Amino acid sequence: MRKVSTSVAGSHAAGHARLQQLGAPELSWLVQRIRDRLERGEPVDGTVTLVGASPAQRKAAARLLGHGLGRGTSLSVPLPELAAVLRSSGAAPSLQAAVEAVAGPVRNLAAERAAEVQHWEDALSAATASPLAALPWYRAWLDEIGRDGTVTRLIRQGHAVVLRQAPAVLERLPGGAEPAGLAAARLAQDATGDPAALASGPLATLVLRALARREGVPPPASPEAEQALWTTAGVVTDDLASQVLVLNVRAGGEPLGRWLTEAAAVGQPFRVTLRQLVAMPVVPWAVSLYVCASAAVLRAAADQLGPAGPGLVCTEGEPSVACLRLLHSAVASGAQLHWNSDFSWPGLRATAAAIRRLGATPWLMSAGDYRAALTSGPSEPLKGRPEPSPWDPALAELMRATGRAVTAEMAAPRVTAALAQIRDAR
Length: 426
What we know:
The chain is α/β, with parallel strands linked by helices and 426 residues long. The chain has helices spanning 2-22, 28-40, 55-65, 79-88, 95-103, 109-128, 136-147, 150-156, 162-171, 184-192, 202-215, 223-232, 256-265, 274-279, 295-305, 321-332, 345-358, 367-376, 393-402, 412-424, and strands at residues 47-51, 74-78, 182-183, 235-236, 243-247, 251-252, 270-273, 283-284, 288-292, 312-314, 336-339, 361-362, 380-381, 404-405.
């Protein structure tokens, strides 16, 4: 009985010694080569070779196999022989068992990949089933985030839920013919159950990328660009800060419509908040409304034209959510919008968006108007990404050629003179 115990103990000792030899730093390359094959699901047969092996690496391999391995610059280890040595010594029944004993579990990359693909498909199932999937911009967004690794990255980071939440947010956004003014917190609450979900983070980033696709602009690269994109989508974070400045806009609806009408009767500018427009909806009465980009134009019109001037709405740069809501209401009541902006790339973008979303008519926005503005007043260098002018392609071409911008303030005298002509023609 003592002989059997001694034999078993010797076998265990020999096996342990072999595992220690396999786990030596000099043979880490060998363990890694075997692990790589196992993880890829490849057979562990044939020979593995290390080019430029050091004397220490060659000595460690010879000690493991129990014989010399030549003296060339390459070191080759036959895997079937290594498996037999480990098995006969009692170290491990297989190369996989040996690798796991010295370096931890071997992954099944094929199974992991299959699981990841399934998880990928599950995470996108809600997005592909959305009613928005019929729209080109939405399909382009899905294709983009699938191809550039965004979906995989979100899944691996534990944010797969946002791939279901983003379509829910996008489906709740106001459409092009709907009045704007959806609170960001309310939108987030309705779509995700968390009122702060769109304040920042992966969901907000994902939704903004989709909105950029919808509006045909680059993904926002600054907080200002993000805010402008939310505004374009009709989403607002502060219903008091979102305002619109108007002049001579008469409207129905109590009491806000009465306030607007009373201000128009005396030719005074009137500022309206989004909160007022939501709580006290109005119906503008004008057949035609004129839109300008600068308070300087509206101020000059109030000074020079008084209550006899045409109804004027000022965007003050990028239209606010309050501005868009009022304009939507005007269009819904039958008004025709005549849109003027500055001769800058953002001005062209805003005009194109107004034509597309509000059916606006460009006003003093032709290549000829630009040429006249350049010759009659100051200008400054154009900045930002060039934009097209679909209503008059020659305008964008001329702006590229000159490289000059004419701001709304610079063009204020010409716009005010045109408003005076409209007044006189009535």
